Amino acid sequence: MSTCVAPVTSPDPRSPGSRPGPVAEASAAGLSLQRLSGWGRTGFVGCRVLRVRTPDEVAHALRTADQRGVLPRGLARSYGDAAQNAGGCVLDMTGLDHLEAIDREAETIRAGAGVALGRVLAAALPSGFVLPVLPGTASVTVGGALASDVHGKNHVHEGSFATHVASFTLMLASGERRTVTRADHDVFWSTAGGMGLTGIVLDAVLQLRPVETTQVLSVRRRCEDIEALLAATATAAADHEYAVAWVDLGARGAGAGRGVVEGGDHAGVADLPADRRQRPLRQDGDHRVTVPAGWPSGVVSWPAVRALGAARWARAPRRAATRLRPLGRFLHPLDGVSDWNRLYGRPGLVQYQLAVPDGTEELVAGIVRRVAAGPAACPVAVLKRLGPQPGLLSFPLAGWTLALDFPADAPRLHHLLAELDDRVAGCGGRVYLAKDSRLRPETLIRMYPRLAEWQAVRRSLDPTGVLISDLARRTGLATAGDHRRA
Amino acid sequence: MRDGTGSPGTVLVLGGGSDIGLAIARRFVHDGARTLVLAGRDPDRMRAAAEQLLDAGAGCVDRVAFDADDVDDHGRMLKAVVARHGDLDVVVLAFGVLGDQLSDEVDAAKAVQVHRTMVLGGVSVLTHLGQLVRRQGHGDIVVLSSVAAMRARRANYVYGSAKAGLDAFASGLSDALVGSGGHLLVVRPGFVRSAMTAGRPPAPLATEPDAVADAVVAALARRAHTVHVPRSLGLVMGGLRLLPRTLFRRLPDR
After folding, report:
1. Fold of B10-249
2. pTM here?
3. Is A263 exposed, middle or buried (0-12, 13-18, 19+ CB in 10 A)?
């Protein structure tokens, strides 16, 4: 099996954080040297990128790995350094893009690791099916969704993405292929949430869920302060399939932490207006705008946050109001604007997503007030409920999650987030590795109590530490396998 | 690995006893650097520097012996540091000798020694470091040059020409590293009030080690290839470079 020749002229336009680099040396080996980053566009590093199209090519890359190891990469929507491997080999998995027909009996679909969830959804909807768990963007690959064990706005009811994976094919570092089912508990729940470090997922069988329409019946209303917002979000999560709250960090004084809570349920045919009942599964068009390249830095600032927050608040209904929304726009708010990460300009963005257990509402309110006090501007703050999750490194835990976006060059950001780390770890909470770009080894150990168990499984699957990422190097996530390579 | 907020994990300072090197290290500690490695010749100065950094909040400060003149040892020294601390996120070249122009210009051995340390030592260690950051796919190299490198002056041409050699080599390497994930910044400070310049009358636009440190961090954040400290010196020296030689020669020493 010969190594495929990767395109060396320009980076894949679907990889948002790639910039062209010199190629002469790398192209001889069928690789292209590219500067890659995560969605946050912060730490660009040089990687040898190989676009693989078959399992054999994956196996070849694994067997010929050097000291800097191998890592699979999908659509690069993890915010930090989870999908990059500085100085090492990065497999662009989007070439493993086969999507089989739906198995209507079992209500499942088999998809290659490189297939975007949006494509699975588009294929399933005409037959009246959806994926039971969808994250905030549909531009996530099946392999990436499994590796990060992503969740949606319905985690308390449906669990995470991996909860609905019937089985998957895992290629171990040795090149051996293994079909992993739920019966193989340790390997399954170490790979789900394992950040691509247990092996390379080649394909997965996904369970689907029947729906009557492509619409969501959403109910939303304002909440005047953070306490009211927390209470309303808990109620919405209990009453509705989906629930999410937007927190206005720009509001000052008593209104700090006010927000809008939105609950949603799949609409039945009867919920549709008369003219749409004939074709309940009709899909709405994509309404996208794109942020141009070269967008200036410094646009995301407190004045902008205040103005946008006030505008959003003004548009939200005072009392609960119901409306029909297309599924995609309800579930994937991040997909309305392409390349929105460019809004942060050259310095990029850092997202801090935390999960804390039930009963820590005061702590969540305290964090919201702390962030609102600055100095780092936080234009996006999203609050959700979470349920328990069996994955050894999975992010969700029964309680709350709050996602906060910051410009990477915001003043004293390092100190603010270190302070939040302490508060979160102190109450048994954690931050989301798929979003992380700054966690330290000592904090990782405090936040992920099952880390040693996971490392033992990883050691059994990848004893020489072939699979490695910058995330793993930075946080010591995979130190178990790593010390032999040092 | 540099984290999302720009904090480096591990910083190596070559010339770890120098005031400017220490100021840069202190600044990185303030910004959240975990591990500082000081490499230099003078154990006492490095011990004092390490204590300062620990007081400033560094998690781990390591000290290793490094002699810029011992070029055969550079590869081994860097390998040992990497074996102990993993990838190097920032490496600062802060070693150098000012020399004494009046005695150096009449003593060939002394003049050569100034060049040996700064040019040969710099070329050797930079070549190793260039390979290191290429292999790593990331890493920032900071080279302390000087405005004196921009045009050799009658008053300090031994030092100025050595810095010019180092500056030219580093600038070339900086361009060679574009696209590799690694990065090299050439820093050209004016007169810096430090232990090295103690007792000498300061030149116009003199600056402090901490100002150099701030400029370095800011320049790295915007991935600049060259920075002058203070920035106005870039313009001044740019102008002086164009000055006819007969005039340039007659400029006062300070």
Report:
1. Rossmann fold (3.40.50)
2. 0.90
3. buried
Q: Which CATH class is domain A215-438?
A: alpha beta
| A414 part of contact set with chain B, CB < 8 Å | yes
d(CA A444, CA A439): 7
The number of C-alpha atoms within 13 Å of A228 and in the hemisphere containing its C-beta is 14
For A268, phi then psi, to 5°, come to -85, 170
Q: Which pLDDT band holds residue A374 (cuts at 50, 70, 90)?
A: confident
Residue in A81, A86, A348 closest to B181 by CB? A86
Amino acid at A275: D
Any idea how long chain A is?
A: 486
Peptide bond into A379 cis (omega under 30): no
Nearest partner of A73 among A26, A3, A11, judged by Cα: A11
Residue A69 in contact with partner chain B when CB distance is under 8 A: no
Give contacts of B6 with chain A, Cβ < 8 Å: 42, 408-409, 414
Domain extent listing, chain A: 215-438
Provide the strand spans (E) within A74-214: 89-92, 108-112, 129-130, 165-171, 177-181, 200-207, 209-210
Q: What one-character DSSP code corresponds to residue A101? A: P
What's the full length of chain B, in residues? 254
Rounded CA separation B211/B228 (Å): 11
| pLDDT (tens digit per residue) in A421-470 | 999 999 999 999 999 999 999 999 999 999 999 999 999 999 999 999 99
ipTM field: 0.89
